[in-house]
Amino acid sequence: MTDATLIARPVTTAQQVHDWLHQRILRGDLPPGARLSETDIAEQIGLSRQPVREAFIRLASDGLAEVRPQRGTYIGKISARAVLSARLIREAVESDLARMLADRDADLSTMEAELSVQDRANAQGDVAAFIASDDRFHQAMALAAGQAAVWQDLERLKSQMNRLRHMSMRVFDRSETIGQHRAILTALQARDADAAEAAVRAHLRQMLTELPQIAAAHPDYFTD
């Protein structure tokens, strides 16, 4: 098998089912504790049960589902420990990325454009679009710093964090997040590494306030 064949390999049906369910879990369409039925989902999307079963197994390995023998598959609770771990890693990595980026003449236009997207999504109350733009803003910072692989590593860490974000962004003031993003961008435009690092840290520490409040409001959705 050639390298070109490997690159061109299409996404499997099981992978597509996994990705679809993964997004529904992150958005909260499938809340913690909800039961997943192979039969129901297979009928809903017009597939056999085998790719659905494979998707369930992958979701369990992601920490997003729990397979209970003789009982079925259930959406897992949000791990507060995993949220805090991902947040800590992101703060350490992204504050370094900000310092790297402030030391070079980088193209920050994508980050600027995403702020406009966030303004529109916030005005329209479109939480999913807002969070997608939030992700692209942070990704753009990594790309501008020449660290695309670093962002891919961060993406693999933050599923539990994203579940919390979809909940918190429905409750807390999204304009505050936009203001934090603006502070990061302004510092980068000024080539002020200290201010850029401080702005990133302040932004990512917001979750330390949001997590206990959301967990207190939805105790059945969280686990240590």
Automatic annotation (TrEMBL):
Gene3D superfamilies: GntR ligand-binding domain-like, Winged helix-like DNA-binding domain superfamily/Winged helix DNA-binding domain. It comes from the Bacteria. SUPFAM superfamilies: GntR ligand-binding domain-like (SSF48008), Winged helix' DNA-binding domain (SSF46785). SMART domains: FCD, HTH_GNTR. Keywords: DNA-binding, Transcription, Transcription regulation. Residues 11-78 form the HTH gntR-type domain. InterPro entries: GntR_C (IPR011711), TF_FadR/GntR_C (IPR008920), Tscrpt_reg_HTH_GntR (IPR000524), WH-like_DNA-bd_sf (IPR036388), WH_DNA-bd_sf (IPR036390). PANTHER family: HTH-TYPE TRANSCRIPTIONAL REGULATOR LGOR-RELATED, TRANSCRIPTIONAL REGULATOR, GNTR FAMILY. This is GntR family transcriptional regulator.
